[in-house]
Amino acid sequence: MRETVSTATVTAGNAEIPALGFGTARMTGDECRRAVETALEVGYRHVDTAQMYDNERAVGEALAASGVGREVERSETSDGASDEVASREDERGESAEKRAGATGSEQREDPGNASGETASERRHVSREDVFVVTKVHPDNAARDDVLESTRESLERLGLETVDLLLLHAPSDRAPLEETLTAMNDLQDEGAVDHVGVSNFSVEQLESARELSETPIVANQVKYHPYHHQDDLLEYCVDRDVCLTAYSPLAEGTVPGDDRLAEIGEPYDKSASQVALRWLVQQPGVAAIPKASSREHIEANADIFDFELSANEMAAVTEVGDGVWNRLAAKLGLH
């Protein structure tokens, strides 16, 4: 039985992390709620949010509507802190996706074809089937702030437990040991299943692994065909840490890349689908693309019915070589 968006996972420590997640950076309010509901209906079983995104309440509303969490009070106000370091995701470039219409037309006939589930199953999702990730704002890195802010996150999400809690980025507000001890304490009390980090270098990740009483199961970083993470990925694979790729479509650059589209032609896949397949086909890598339209949410999930050859994997990797020189030439900078 082939993998689907609902079943493909990455094993890291004692965590089973769905290989393709749904990113929500820079989405708030009804747009975020509708997108997460659609993603869950399509078959996504990994939802990524953060205190910094100001959208945990909207995510919680979508989870509740899908049968995952308890109902949360609707609010027209923002959920939390400013999105000062949140990554700009891929919505900006969706209109450049030349081939999504072809794949999307088939998916619109059966929106669940990427997951293999029936329509009834897609409308109601069990809590144990959804992997929910949120992140501690770097400003909340002190012990008491970690504890308080995470409990507030759970309240906004309408959940008793979050599957994975990340420190959003290295912080100067408290020693890393203090932050991780608080996160471990949240595990002890059942509020958090797994812990991890985000935007950590190899050296910072090594320190986190040494300081945490429980496994650091993930490091969420920017990773796409134009921004490689070779050293970090090698480290993560060797230490059983999932590398979760945010901004996997390079903030809208990938959809218009003719070289990636050409690689996808034999499979009737778009440039975006090739890039996402390249990511999840690598050992220990998960990806969390963002989209707001059903067409793109479905297209991003439709990457489990083909496999790139070794030569094609290498070709995608090579797309990023010299990308900045090409950009400079295009802009007339040299």
From TrEMBL:
Residues 20-70, 119-319 form the NADP-dependent oxidoreductase domain. Residues 64-129 are annotated as: Disordered. Residues 85-111, 119-129 have a biased composition (Basic and acidic residues). Keywords: NADP, Oxidoreductase. One of its GO terms (molecular function) is methylglyoxal reductase (NADPH) (acetol producing) activity. One of its GO terms (biological process) is methylglyoxal catabolic process. Belongs to the aldo/keto reductase family. PANTHER family: 2,5-DIKETO-D-GLUCONIC ACID REDUCTASE, NADP-DEPENDENT OXIDOREDUCTASE DOMAIN-CONTAINING PROTEIN. This is Aldo/keto reductase. It comes from Haloterrigena salina JCM 13891. The lineage of its organism: Archaea, Methanobacteriati, Methanobacteriota, Stenosarchaea group, Halobacteria.
